[in-house]
Amino acid sequence: MRARAGGGMPKTLQTRTSSACVTGHRHRLNGVRRADYRASRRRLGVRERVFLQSTPQGDLVLVTLEGADPAGAIAQIGADDDDFARWFIGQLKEIHAVDLRADPQGPLPELISDTES
Known about the structure:
Elements: E1 11-17, H1 19-29, H2 34-44, E2 46-55, E3 58-67, H3 70-79, H4 83-96
């Protein structure tokens, strides 16, 4: 799913997965890959937060990007070709079946309420 650039509103993506799949990825992002992860998001001008929500239908991962152009940041992540980007994109595809290098399957979620606006 490649995001179309534009728009400064926060963007949220969600996927269904298992917490077991997310655990290893989370440990690497917060461990050996942390410096690259933080540098990538700083370069893109976004703050990324990831939430794991357990539901009766299964685990749900929510990812929020906040910054001047979150949709553009998603597109740029999909276009990047450094070592971290290749690893990150591969992890998303393997764990969540989300391909940031492919064309979008639909629009990004629409923000419908914000206490700060």
